Every structure is written in C-alpha cells, then in structure tokens.
Amino acid sequence: MRRAVSRRYAALLPAQPPAPGEQYAFEVDLDACSGCKACVVACHSLNGLDDGESWRSVGLLLGGTDAAPVLQHVTYACHHCIEPACSIGCPVNAYEKDPATGIVRHLDDQCIGCQYCTLACPYDVPRYHAGKGIVRKCDMCATRLQAGEAPACVQACPNEAIRIRTVNVEHVRRDAEANVFLPGAAPPHQTLPTTLYQTARPQPANLLPADYHDVNPLHGHPALAAMLVLMQGAVGAFVFRLLLAARLGEGPTPFSAALALALGLLGIGASLFHLGRPQFAFRAILNLRRSWLSREILAFVLFAFFAVLHAVALFCGAPSPVATATGVAAAVGGVAAVACSAMIYVFVGRAQWGFTSVFAKFFLTAAWLGTMPKDP
Question: Which residues have a Cβ under 8 Å from the Cβ of 160 and sit 6 or more positions away?
C-alpha cells in the first residue's frame, strides 16, 4: 500500500535528489490553487500542530480593473531561501540549512524564544509558540522526502497545485535580480526565496494581498521596549558624565557611575523577560559571526562589566588612570551596543527602518536620556 501511494505522487516529486548547485523547492501552480486550504489542514494534522498554529497558509491577491478584476488564491509556506534571514539573524544558531537539500530547518531545542527571526523574515514564516516559548516553522516534511514520500501539503492538494522540484541556485539568484517572484510579496533580493509560482495567465501589475491595507499589530514586546530605553539611557548617562567630567577637569562621581550602571543592569534584566526560554539566555552570543543580536548582547555585557569595574574603582578610590581606563572601555562598549541595536532593525530591510533614521533615533534617545539624571 505504501509503495502504491508513493507511485501515485511520484509526478509531484523530483526524479532525482538535488545535484551540486541545486536544492529542493516548492512549486505552486497558481492556476490550479482554488483556496480550499486542504494543504493547511494536512500540514496541521501531520505535524501535530496546536490550535491556532499553522506552518502553511492560503492568501488572496486582488487586482485588475473594474472591467477585468483578478482574484488569485495563493498557498505559501517557508520558501527555504538561499540566504535565509532567519538563520543569519538568529543569535543562537537555531536554524540550519541542509547543504545537500537546501531545506531550512529550525532546531527547537536550541531556540531561546527571542523571536528575532519572526521580525527578520520578510515573509512572516517563523511563528512564535507562546506555550512552548519557541519558534517553529515548515521543514518541507524532510523526513517524508528522505523516505521518498510527498510532503503533507503536496499529497493533500486535490488539484495537485503544489509540487516539490529541484532548482538551480544560480537561476534563483538571477531571477531575484530581475525581481521575479510573487506579486505583492517582499522583494526577493534580500533572502533569495526558492518557491516557484507558475501561471499561464497574465498577472496585472496592481495585484496586492487582500489585507495589504489592514493594520493588524502583533503581540507587544514591553520587555524589549524597556530594555532598549533603559540601555540607551544607561549608555547616554555614562558617556555624558565622562564628557562633562573631562570638560570640567573633574572625574565622574561615584553616584553618577552607579546610576548609569543601575540603569544598564535593569535593562539587561528586562531583556530576559522578552525571551520565551530565558534559562538559555547564555546561548545568545553563539552567532557573533553573522547576527547583530548576538553582537548587541555581547557589547551590552561588556558595557556592564566595565561599568561595574569603573563604579568599584570610583567607590574604592582607585588611581585615576584605572578609573579613566575602565570608564572609557565602558563608554566604547556602550556606544558599540547602541550601534548594534540599531543594526538589528536596519538588517530586516523594512522601509520604515532605514539606516539614517534608525541610528538617529537610537543615539538621540541615548543623548536625551543621558542628560536627565543629575547628581545630588
């Protein structure tokens, strides 16, 4: 029976595994997709997802003219990008891209629930599971593919609108440069998504998602907001006190150093409440090579470390060179941390988070908050 089922869906799978320079990809026939959501149900059932959790969705594109309106159903899941932003941004290396198949998998046990991948992915693929405190996503039913079976969504579609194909990586790069992907989706040049959307019908240039103009805010991140404000205030206060002291020819007071340190430690503490699994926060510097979030965390830790040494030096009456050196080291670490915080948002490539505007907002906030605390 199992072999008969496998033969039945053989046409929906590639005849050979990916060759060097190739990878697996979804292929969607837009002309065959009716929006029935059988693929969504099958994915949910096979993967044992919880209520309200979905790794595959069906959207709707609207466009055309009053005389010739266009309504297009679209099924979509993870695009298993060639340069996945989720993997690049993840501070704990909770993603891996299989070198042989190109499938991007999420390593649930490694995840700390920082949710940065949900922000970094321009296609809203990773989904945060509040009950488990981690992110989860589609893995193209990799174990079924390995056994020669079709993924759940492929097997469930009554119109055979979803297939698995192998794609040439260089061809995907070329198409991304020409902005060939899906109307209404984020530009493909950022992550190089591999899903192939096929249609024999002309697509109007004004196709947009049906909810394009809707405002649907996601759940808030109060702990993250508190961390950013407190840390920017701490860095601003520290740098301002050092500059003021240098201009007046007097060293910073123990009180000002302690106040800046307290703000920084409160910010670091607040950041833990943002994580779904704060007990594994120590993993957050594992991806220093690629993740701005890992770099931010390390920079803030260094800022706090040198700020503690600076405050201790002042309270204990250490020699001036020691107090100065630790203060300068803390200031440098703090400025670097704020810069990394800004790059976290610049990296995601959203139009509202341009390099200049984000850096201006972050450093002006630090400067404004830094001048507010006064010595008694």
Answer: 11, 12, 29, 32
